Amino acid sequence: MSDRPVESVALMARPKNQKSVVKKRSYTAGRVARQLPIAPEPNRLLKVWRRVLERRLRTRLRAKVAVEIHDNTHTMLTFQRQRALWRLRLHHMFLAAPDDVVQALASFVRNGDPDASVHLDRYIERNRAYIRRLSPAQMRKRIRLEPEGQHHDLERIFARLNERYFESRIDAAITYGPAPRVKGPRKSIKMGSYSADSKVIRIHPALDQPMVPRYFVEWIVFHEMLHHVYRTRRGDDGRRCIHPPELMEHEKRFHDYSRALAWERENLDLLLRARVSP
Ligand SMILES: [Zn+2]
After folding, report:
1. How far does the centroid of ligand 1 lie from the alpha carbon of residue 210, in Å?
2. How far is the CA of 20 from the centre of ligand 1 (A)?
3. Residues 260, 212: Cα–Cα separation, whole Å
4. What is the CATH classification number for the domain harbouring 162?
5. Which of 227, 250, 253, 266 is deepest in the core (most CB within 10 A)?
6. 22 inside domain
7. Model pLDDT for residues 222-272, shown as the tens digit of each residue
8. Cα gap 208→173, rounded to integer Å
9. C-alpha of residue 278 to centroid of ligand 1, in Å
10. 191-225 pLDDT, tens per residue?
């Protein structure tokens, strides 16, 4: 029970309408690369290359593909299925990817193939010279931090936990995240996240309600602080492990661990139904 991930597939309620389920995954670079200047790609050329890549993926996925190219520093690839369309957001290093890499992309997107994942990892590692380097402080400057809330002051919760459990050594920022736009009732809720790039913890604004007990918010914050301590790594099976056993073990040291788990079990509906104004 303890290895239940809080992010990604966290708190999946039974989907009512299978068709509207969106498959989403992300894939991140293991390490941020040294800075190397790269010549800016002329826009027109970029468009052509992007279309070529879409075509190459389309033949392999036998489905419509929309590619968006970015210059992110940490997340190299995310994808999402929207009915018959695959939406991929890719780092520009994939524009000129050789066939074996495009094939791996297709296999990874289609069924999360672990071999393909290893292949992609190697490609990212070989091309890390193209990953722009930004310091966490630079990244953080771009983010508006709003930790105060109406009911739960995240800054204070963070500071107390930091003192109590981490000798105040966790150098991260915290904020309520923006309210994601959801049509109809939520099927899942991502209560917290941690960005290793910016060292920012984001907490879902649905937690800022009077009926959500303080110890529950503390637990979510504590969990995200552990992500700062234990970085994502590869498990023995080659898959990415965002919740290594050490993290899950450490999490049990939280003073209200079982109470928080029990509250979550009983009140999931309340969180899924929460209306949050952006
Ligand atoms: Zn987590």
Report:
1. 24
2. 25
3. 10
4. 3.30.2010.10
5. 227
6. no
7. 999 999 999 887 777 767 788 989 999 999 999 999 999 999 999 988 888
8. 17
9. 24
10. 999 988 889 999 999 999 999 999 999 999 999 99
Residue 175 lies in a domain: yes
Domain contains 255:
yes
- Identify the bridge partners of residue 241 per DSSP, sorted by sequence position: 233
Q: Rounded to the nearest whole angstrom, what is the distance from the C-alpha of residue 206 to the centroid of ligand 1? A: 17
- Do residue 124 and residue 159 come from a single domain? no
Q: Does residue 232 sit in the same domain as residue 262?
A: yes
Q: How many CB atoms lie within 10 A of CB 161?
A: 20
Kindly state whether residues 94 and 186 are assigned to the same domain: no
> What Cα–Cα distance (Å) separates residue 256 from each residue in 41, 219, 251, 263?
52, 7, 10, 10
Distance of CA 59 to the CA centre of its chain: 28
Q: Which domain holds residue 148?
A: 136-273
Specify the pTM: 0.60
As given in the structure block, the two tokens for residue 9 are 């597939």
Which two structure tokens, joined as six digits, stand for 99?
């066939």
User: Which of 71, 102, 130 marks a domain boundary?
Assistant: 130
Whether 141 and 126 map to the same domain: the answer is no
- Answer yes or no: is 154 within a domain: yes
Q: How far is the CA of 77 from the centre of ligand 1 (A)?
A: 19
* Close Cβ partners of 205 (under 8 Å, ≥ 6 residues apart): 149, 176, 177, 178, 179, 276
d(CA 204, CA 138): 23
Distance 5 CA to ligand 1 centre (A): 6
Closest to 131 measured CA to CA, from 243, 276, 30: 30
> Could you say which of 130, 150, 183 is where a domain stops?
130
**How many independent structural domains does the chain possess?**
2
DSSP string, 65-121: EEEEEE--SSEEEEEEEETTEEEEEEEGGGTT--HHHHHHHHHHHHH--HHHHHHHH
